Amino acid sequence: MAEKSGKIEKPEPPAPAGMGRRRFLGTAAVAGAGLAALAGCNEKPAADAGKGAASAGGTHAAANAVHLKPGELDSYYGLWSGGHTGDARIIGIPSGREIHRIPCFNPDPLIGWGITNESKKIMGTKPDGSLKYTVADTHHVHASYKDGNYDGRYAWINDKINSRIARLRLDYFVCDKITELPNVQGFHGIFPDKRDPVDEKINYTTRVFCGGEFSIPLPNAPIDDPSKYRSLFSCVDAESMEVRWQVMIDGNCDLTATSFDGKLAATNQYNTEMGARYEDMMSAERDACLFFNIARIEAAVKAGKFRTIGTSKVPVVDGTAEANKDPGTALVAYVSVPKNPHGVNASPDGKYFICAGKLSPTATVIELSRVLEWFDGKLEKIDDSIVAEVELGLGPLHTAFDGRGNAYTTLFLDSQVVKWNVEAAIKFTRGDKTAKYVVDRIDVHYQPGHINATQSETTAADGKYLAVGCKFSKDRYLPVGPMHPENEQLIDISGDKMILLADHPVRPEPHDFIIFKRDLVKPKQVYDIDHSPLAIKDAKESGVFRQGRKVTVKMTSLAPSFSLREFKVKKGDEVTLILTNLDKIEDLSHGFAIPNYNINFVVNPQETASVTFTADKTGVFWCYCTHFCHALHLEMRSRMIVEA
Ligand code: CUK
Ligand code: CUA
Ligand code: CA
C-alpha cells in the first residue's frame, strides 16, 4: 500500500483555501483510477515526519505538553472505542498512556468477561449457555450529559456487527447492560440526548439515539429488490436500556448527533440512492442530513400512530420522505447535503450541525434554529437551513470544536486536519469572499478518520488538545509484520497554529473517542460488597453445598489465601463457584483460574463473581490466583478434587 519509507518525498504544500481543481469526486473517477485514492493508497510518507513536535519551539511554544513526570497524572480521560476488540479503552490525555480497557461485546479472559455468570448475563447467551456473539465492531462512544456537559454517569458504545448497544458505568468503569436493536443491521452512529425537549426539569440524558446503517427488508426476508429495503433510527432508554421507539426512514443512517436543546437528533446519509452497490450509492450529487423531531415522534407514539415489525414490540413511526412533506406534521426533516457525507457534529455553542462531505471537498453548516423554523412552518424550504457550504480539502470526515468558534475537520484523502472558523465560513457563503475561513492546516500521519478535542461537543469545550485517529500508520512505528497499528496523534490547539505533539500506536481499530476533564468522573476503587446478591460476606459461610447434581462452592479470598484450601465435587456435577474478594484495600485484586477447565476471572476488592461449569474430568486441579497480589501470590491456591 504505502510507498517504501526509504523513498521519502517532500509533501505537497497545503492546499490553498479556494481549491478550484478540487470539485466533487465523480462516480467515474472513483470507479476508475480514483478508487485507489479513496482507499488512501496515494499517500506518500511525509518528509516532515515527527517535525511538528520538534518545531514546537519555533512558531510558538507548545502551551500544552505531553510529557508527564513519573507519578504525575493526566488532566483528561480519553474514552476510546476499541473497534474489533469490542471494548472501550481509557487513555490518559495528554500522555496517551492506555490505562484500562473495558470489555463489552467480546470475551476478555483477563477479567473473565464472557466467563463469569454475571458477564454472560449482560452479554447474552444461547439456550445452551454459550455466548450468543463473540465478535463485535465498536465505532462510537459517547457519555451522558447534564447541563450540556458530561455528568460522569454513563457512556454508550455501539457494536456494528451484531447491532448491540452497551452501557458503561463511569463509576466502576465496567459495562453493565447490553441491548440488541431489533430489525437493525449495521448499527453505526450513537449519541445520547443532552436534555429533554419538553420537560424543563430533565436537563440530563434520558435517551440514546442509534443509527441503522444498512437497509434491509423489514422484517428481514430474502427479498432481492433493494428499493424495498429501509433502515431504522432507534431511541434507547438511558436507564432501562430498552428500545423506546424506532423511525423508519428512506436512505440510511450513518453518524448521529444531538442538539443541546434536546429538540433534534441528526443523522447523515450517504445512501439516499438506496443503492446496493457502491456505484449506486454514489450516483447522486447530493445526499442528506436528517433531523428527527423528538417531541413530535414521542407524541405520535403516544397517540398510537405506529406499527410494529415482525416479532418486535417496539413502536415504529413512519419517517419516510413521502410521509413527512408537511412541516406542520413532519417527524423528520430531510436536508440535502453534498455527495456521500460522513460525520455530523453539533457545535458547542448549540447553534449548528456540521456535515462533512467525504466525496465532496466541503463541509455543510446547518443552523439549528432554522430547522426548527421549518418544523414551525416559518421557513419555506428546509434546505434554507444551510447557512454555509465551504470547501475544506479532499475527503472531509469528522469535525471537532475548540469552543472559540473554530472547527477542526479531518481530511482523509489529504491526510490533513483543517482548522476553520464557522462564522467566517457563513460570511463567505453569504458572498463576502474576503472572509478567510480556513485558519490553519496541519499534516497528519496518515488518512485521519475521527477527530476530537478536549470537551469538544460540550458547553465546556476548552480548546486545549485535539486527538486525531489516523487509519494508516505506515512508517511511523517499528515494523511489526503486515499488520500496522493505527496512529492516534495529539495536537496542541491552544494557539492560532496547530502543533503536532505526539504519536501513539493503537491496536486496530478505534474510530471515535471523547476526551473530558478528569474531575467529571468519580471512580470507585473498591466495590460495595452488596453490589452482588451472591456476596459471601464472611469466610465462615464458605463450603460445598449440594442439591442433587447441582453443587454450589462458596469461597472468599483474602491475601494470600482462599477460604477453601481444598474442595471436593463429583464427576458430572454442575458446579457453581461463587467467589467474594474480602480484601478491602485498593488495588488488591485476585484472580481465579481452574486448569484444564478453561476458567479464569478476577475479583476486585469486595467484588463477587461466579462461574458455572460441569466437572467432567476427574483428578486434582490446582485452582490458583492469577493476579499478583502478595509475596505469597504463587502459594495462593485451592485444590479442586473431582472424584469419580
Ligand atoms: S465512522 Cu470510523 S472514521 Cu464508524 Cu465514525 Cu468515521
Ligand atoms: Cu491473590 Cu495473587
Ligand atoms: Ca450517495
Descriptive report:
Helices cover 8% and strands 37% of the residues. It is mainly β and 644 residues long. Among the domains are: 3-66, no CATH class; 529-643, Cupredoxins -  blue copper proteins (Immunoglobulin-like). It is globular and about 85 Å long. Residues 1-22, 27-34 and 42-60 have low confidence and may be disordered. Residues 139-140, 188, 255, 342, 397-398, 449-450, 511-512 line the site of [4Cu:2S] cluster.
Alpha-carbon distance between the two ends: 59 Å
Class per helix and strand makeup: mainly beta
Would you tell me which CATH topology of one domain applies? Immunoglobulin-like
Low-pLDDT ranges: 1-22, 27-34, 42-60
**Radius of gyration over all CA atoms, rounded:** 26 Å
Beta-strand percent range: 35-45%
Question: Topology of this protein?
Answer:
Blueprint: H1 27-31, H2 34-38, H3 51-54, H4 56-59, E1 76-81, E2 87-93, E3 98-103, H5 117-123, E4 141-146, E5 149-159, E6 164-169, E7 174-180, E8 185-192, E9 207-214, E10 231-237, E11 243-249, E12 256-258, E13 264-269, H6 278-281, E14 286-293, H7 294-302, E15 316-318, E16 332-338, E17 344-346, E18 352-356, E19 362-367, H8 368-375, E20 386-391, E21 396-401, E22 406-411, E23 416-421, H9 422-429, E24 438-443, E25 448-453, E26 465-470, E27 486-492, E28 499-506, E29 513-517, E30 543-547, E31 550-558, E32 561-562, E33 566-570, E34 574-581, E35 590-594, E36 599-603, E37 608-614, E38 619-624, E39 637-643
Parallel strand pairs: 11-15, 31-34, 33-39
Antiparallel strand pairs: 1-2, 1-29, 2-3, 4-5, 5-6, 6-7, 8-9, 9-10, 10-11, 12-13, 13-14, 14-16, 17-18, 18-19, 19-20, 21-22, 22-23, 23-24, 25-26, 26-27, 27-28, 30-31, 31-32, 34-37, 35-36, 38-39
The chain binds [4Cu:2S] cluster, dinuclear copper ion (CUA) and calcium ion.
